[in-house]
Design goal:
- By secondary structure, this protein is an alpha+beta fold.
- It contains 10 helices and 18 strands.
- It has a 6-stranded mixed sheet with strand order 1-2-6-3-7-17. A 4-stranded antiparallel sheet has the order 11-13-9-14, covered by helices on one side.
- Helix 1 packs across helix 3.
């Protein structure tokens, strides 16, 4: 199959993150094994999901380039699609389907190139790492990375195929997500003074987070847009009925930090601010803030020679930074030089009627043929 045929097949697998990805994994593994690749599966604890790691080489399999992507996609529920999101639809030069850009388009190109490589002796080892649960915090790639150099070959460098319109990216922000829980006391709304009102207490949490957000905006790095670390409140869950004083409120918030920003301590910082706020303390609610997950910031350690080589192949003069998080930070934390370069635009990711243009698939195939030559 060529890359477009591969994409048509891959889109049919419903790999939304709350579902198993094993059907798609087995399909990919069967093809790669048939081509002569050494294929390994790295399952999660429950056994209902797994990452795939495949290698091809004529000698030792350490070294070479690893091409990393995630098999999971975001949900389509509640989105207004014009076509079936799990059937690839072609309209002009656009290929519509969930995951077409993020990031089954890149996997499709890798699989098409995998067949070409199997027919020609490779000069250096080639690896493919296809993971799960990226869309819920870059979780699924971590167990595989811990095995590199021990149970699995250790590549010399990694290319993460997230959509960059085939530009080479060398940096992105970290993502730290926090959960703040307020616990009070329920009461009948006819006498709310008998309760401890957690929604009332939540306004102090939101005010303190707003102050923290403004402070984060003071440090700039013009390589990013926006050019500073950001803080965002994404969820709030509270209350059972309008006539009950709410005894619990849960607030979900995140920081997207510049690579120079240490985001780990912001939960403790919020706790200290609340305890120092006499008006919050007077309400009587108990606050707890926990770090839910962190996606490491990414700052590439690729050598100048490697970066120049990849830029030349990609046809660009300079690298870019991207605003979204990827597994690149995890690979870098493991000491493996990493770059991000993949087909499609991040503007299409997660949207209804997600699409990738045929020209991006063609450009990606040309890139892979030169890198993997």
């Amino acid at each position: 199959m060529n890359a477009l045929e591969w994409l048509a097949k891959l889109v049919t697998f419903n790999t939304v993150s709350d579902r198993s990805n094993l059907e798609m994994l087995r399909f990919l593994a069967t093809h790669l094994q048939g081509l002569g690749y050494a294929v390994h599966s790295v399952p999660n604890a429950a056994g209902d999901k797994a990452a795939l790691f495949a290698s091809l080489g004529t000698g030792g399999l350490d070294g070479g380039v690893c091409y990393s992507a995630h098999m999971d996609v975001v949900p389509t529920a509640g989105q207004a699609w014009d076509t079936d999101p799990f059937t690839l639809s072609v309209k002009g030069t656009r290929l519509y389907g969930r995951g077409s850009t993020d990031m089954k388009g890149f996997i499709a190109c890798c699989m098409a190139r995998a067949k070409e490589l199997a027919d020609t002796p490779v000069q250096q080892p080639v690896h493919f790492c296809f993971s799960y649960d990226e869309e819920i915090g870059c979780l699924g790639v971590v167990p595989t990375i811990t095995k590199l150099g021990r149970d699995l070959p250790r590549p010399a460098c990694v290319i993460v195929g997230e959509p960059t319109l085939m530009h080479v990216a060398t940096a992105h922000k970290s993502i730290a997500s926090f959960d703040t829980t307020l616990v009070g006391r329920g009461a009948h709304s006819s006498n709310p003074t008998l309760g401890i009102h957690t929604i009332e207490a939540a306004r102090f949490v939101l005010n303190e987070l707003a102050h923290m957000r403004n402070e984060l905006a003071q440090q700039h790095d013009d390589a990013f847009k926006p050019n500073h670390s950001t803080l965002h409140v994404g969820t709030m869950r509270a209350g059972q009925a309008v006539n009950i004083v709410p005894d619990r409120c849960e607030i979900g918030w995140e920081i997207r930090g510049l690579p120079t920003q240490n985001v780990h301590g912001f939960g403790d910082a919020l706790q200290s601010r609340l305890l120092d706020n006499s008006d919050f303390v007077a309400i009587g609610a108990r606050a707890t803030t926990l770090l839910d997950n962190i996606v490491p910031a990414f700052a590439s350690s690729a050598s100048p020679e490697l970066l120049r080589h990849m830029l030349r192949i990609a046809g660009h003069s300079a690298a870019i930074s991207v605003a979204y998080g990827t597994e690149a930070g995890h690979f870098e934390a493991a000491g493996i030089p990493t770059l991000i370069c993949g087909p499609g635009s991040i503007d299409q990711a997660h949207t209804p009627n997600e699409f990738i243009d045929v020209s991006q698939m063609d450009t990606c195939m040309a890139f892979l043929r030169q890198v993997m030559g």
